[in-house]
Amino acid sequence: MIIDAHSHVHDPVDRHLADLDTAGVDRTVLFGTRPHPERAVDLASLRREMKVLDHALAGSGNSIDGYRTAWRELDEALTAHPDRFIGFGSVPLDLPEQDVAAVIEREVVGRGLRGIGELTPPPGQAARIEPVLRAAHDHGALPVVVHGFAPTTAEDLRTLSRLAARYPAVPLVVSQLGGSNWMEAVELVRDTPSMYLELSTANIIFSVRLAIQEIPERTLFGSDAPYGDPVLARTTIERVTPPGEVRDRVLGGNLGRLLGIL
C-alpha cells in the first residue's frame, strides 16, 4: 500500500483525488488547513493565500474560531472519502494546557481522527507542543506531526527531540525533512527512537537518499500537497531507492505499521 504521510484539504477535493490517482497513492494523511494556495488563479491571489500561511506559521490567528472552518472542511473530505483519507486534527497551541487537552479530546479523539497535526509552533517556540504530547500520550499515544520547514529553526528541532525523549511512547513526526536544517533533523530523528522524518519539500535529492539510508524504518513518503505534488514526491523516493523492502517501507509500510493499518 502506498500512503502519502502529509497532505492538506484541497478545494475542490476532486483535484486532490485526481493527483493521488495519477501518483498511484492508495491513501493519504489529511490535515485541515486555513490557507488554500490551490485556489489561486494569479500571483495576487496566491499572495493572499500565502499571507494566511505566513500568519499561521508565525503563530497568529490561533483562536478556536480560526480553526472551525478548517475542521469543517476536513470533516467533509473524510466523510466523502473515508477509503482514501486518514484524518489528523490540529489544535491551537496558545491555549491553556487544560484547554489544549479538552480540544484534543473533542476535536481529535471525538471525531475519530488518527493523529494530531500538522502543528505549527512559532519559530523558537517548539516547546509549546508539550501539552499536546501529554494529551496524545493520555489518549493511547496518538502520533503527532510538527511542521519542519522554515520558519522552524535548528533549535526548534533540538527542542522537539528533547520533548520526544520525555514522551517516548508518542510517535513524533517532523515534516518536510526539517527544511534547510535537514542534516540535523536526520541526526536527531536517527538518535531519538520515537521520532519519524517525513520527506516532502526536499530541494536537494541526496538529502532524501541519506535520510532513508540513516533511518529506513522511520522515514515517510509525503507530498505536502498542494504545496508539493504526489507524483514528484513518489518519483523522488523511487529515484533514490531500488525496488525492494526499503522502498516499500518508506512509501507506505512504515506509516501503515505506525497507524496499525498494515
From TrEMBL:
Residues 3-260 form the Amidohydrolase-related domain. It comes from the Bacteria. Keywords: Hydrolase. GO terms for molecular function: hydrolase activity. SUPFAM superfamilies: Metallo-dependent hydrolases. InterPro entries: Amidohydro-rel (IPR006680), Metal_Hydrolase (IPR032466). The keyword Hydrolase applies. This is Metal-dependent hydrolase.
